[in-house]
Amino acid sequence: MTFDPLAGSRYREHAVTSGDWREEHRARVAHEEVVRLERRQQDLLEQVSERNTPAERIRIWERRHGLTLPRDSNHRLLRIVAAETELALDQVTEEQQRRLAAARPEPAAAPSAV
Predict the structure, then answer these.
(1) What mean pLDDT is predicted for residues 55-70?
(2) Does 114 have pLDDT greater than 60?
(3) What's 16's DSSP letter?
(4) 44 within a domain of the structure (yes/no)
(5) In sequence order, which residues have a C-beta less than 8 Å from that of residue 85 and are 6 or more positions away?
(6) Which domain holds residue 88?
(7) Does the residue 13 lie in any domain?
C-alpha cells in the first residue's frame, strides 16, 4: 500500500497489470536492436554504394565511426577509410585536400598601387 493524498482514503492497493511488463520490455528492446542492426546494414551498403560520391561515402564512414578524416596526408587511417568505403586511396586524399582547401581563409586582396 502507498499513501495517496488525492484519493478519498489514505492508502490504496497497487494496481495489478494484466500483461507482463518484463516481456513487453524484452520485446521492445529486441525490436530496437533489430532496427539498429537494419540501420547499420543500410549504412554499410550506402558506404560502398557507387551511387554515392566519394565525399558522401566518406561522410557515412565518419558518421558511423564518430571520426573525421585526418588532416595529415600520410595518416594510416586514410587507407582504412579507402578500404571500408571501397574507394581508391587517391580518391580519399583528393577529398581530404578539397576539405583542407575549403577550410583555408581567403587571402586578403592586396592594396592597389596608386
Answers:
(1) 96
(2) no
(3) P
(4) yes
(5) 47, 48, 54, 57, 58, 60, 61, 92
(6) 18-102
(7) no
Would you state the cell numbers that stand for residue 48, as one nine-digit string?
Answer: 560502398
Quote the CA–CA distance of 76 and 96 in Å, as a whole number. 13
Chain centre to alpha carbon of residue 40: 10
8 falls within a domain: no
Any domain includes 10: no
Global pTM value: 0.67
Please state, in angstroms and as integers, the Cα–Cα distance from residue 61 to each residue in 33, 48, 68, 97, 102, following that order: 21, 9, 9, 17, 20
Q: SS3 of 40, please?
A: helix
pLDDT score of 55 more than 60:
yes
| Helix ranges restricted to H, the chain | 21-48, 54-65, 77-85, 89-103
The total of structural domains in the chain comes to 1
77 CB contacts (<8 Å, ≥6 apart)?
Answer: 67, 69, 70
